[in-house]
Amino acid sequence: MKIHADLTQRAVVDSTELDWVPSPMAGVERRMLERDGEEVARATSLVRYAPGSSFSAHNHDLGEEFLVLDGIFSDETGDFPKGMYVRNPPGSRHVPSSEPGAVILVKLRQMHPGDDSFVRVNTLDPGGWQAGRAGEQILPLFIRPEEEVVMLDWQPGTALDAQTFPGGVEYFVVDGSFEDQDGRYDQGTWLRLPPGSEQTIRTTRGTRVWRKSGHLCDRETQSHD
Fold first, then answer.
1. Cβ(106)–Cβ(49) under 8 Å?
2. How many whole angstroms separate alpha carbon 19 and alpha carbon 45?
3. How far apart are CA 46 and CA 69, in angstroms?
4. Residue 121, CB half-sphere, CA atoms under 13 Å: how many?
């Protein structure tokens, strides 16, 4: 299965317009944003857990990261409420579930094979946020030379100078909306720009976004053999 699998191409998906597709496990459904492979795949998806649902134990050969958008997501390491960013490195294993139900943004098989970092960040805790450019607040989630993952808040009326992304960039709009030279992106939208893209951002209403950049040039993380 290939959905927006060509990483050299711009891709934009309004996830609110997608149907929820059943997974192999009862009570777990997906909205597929990008995918290259079958059940084992390089993938970016929204995953919805019905109350009381679970997924069977599985390994993450090339890692998993997710942001809890709603509800409480759990595994044997703990409970992760709305706003938690979690990173489980290559070789990790868990048994996910949700007692009250949950929706997560999840990325699979997109980490560097040598990454061994377990990360848990509460993005709703104001303590970690820092001042960025004018009108911008930034929360670092994971930083390494070839990859940067952050949360960004842009205040209403913010207009930012053009920025180039040599290693590509992708966004998920958690709240509000923003615009660039090619369009407008409302809550629930996933956007990916290929390596070398330049972008000029502005927002009328203000927004909170999850952003990952630099990773689209690292070919090792794109294998799904």
1. no
2. 12
3. 9
4. 21
- Checking 122-128 for CB contacts under 8 A at 24+ apart, the result is 122/83, 122/84, 122/85, 123/67, 123/83, 123/84, 123/85, 123/151, 124/82, 124/83
Q: Give me the pLDDT at residue 221, please.
A: 39
C-alpha–C-alpha distance, residues 66 and 185, integer Å: 20
What local confidence, expressed as pLDDT, does residue 195 receive? Answer: 96
What pLDDT is attached to residue 39? 65
Domain 124-220, CATH class in plain words: mainly beta
* Residue whose tokens read 């040039």: 217
- Any idea where the domains of the chain sit in the sequence? 18-121, 124-220
Q: Give 10-residue mean pLDDT values along the chain (225 residues).
A: 94 97 92 83 91 82 92 93 94 88 92 88 96 97 94 98 97 98 98 98 98 78 36
In degrees and rounded to multiples of 5, residue 161 shows phi and psi of: -65, 160
Q: What angle do CA 220, 152, 175 make, to 5 degrees?
A: 105
Among 152, 149, 190, which residue's Cα sits nearest to residue 173? 190
Residue 206 contacts residue 154 (beta carbons within 8 Å): yes
Q: Which CATH class is domain 18-121?
A: mainly beta
Give residue 64's pLDDT.
92
The b/e string for 111-130 (b: 16+ C-beta within 10 A; e otherwise) is bbeebeeeeebbbeeeeeee
Q: What is the pLDDT of residue 120?
A: 96
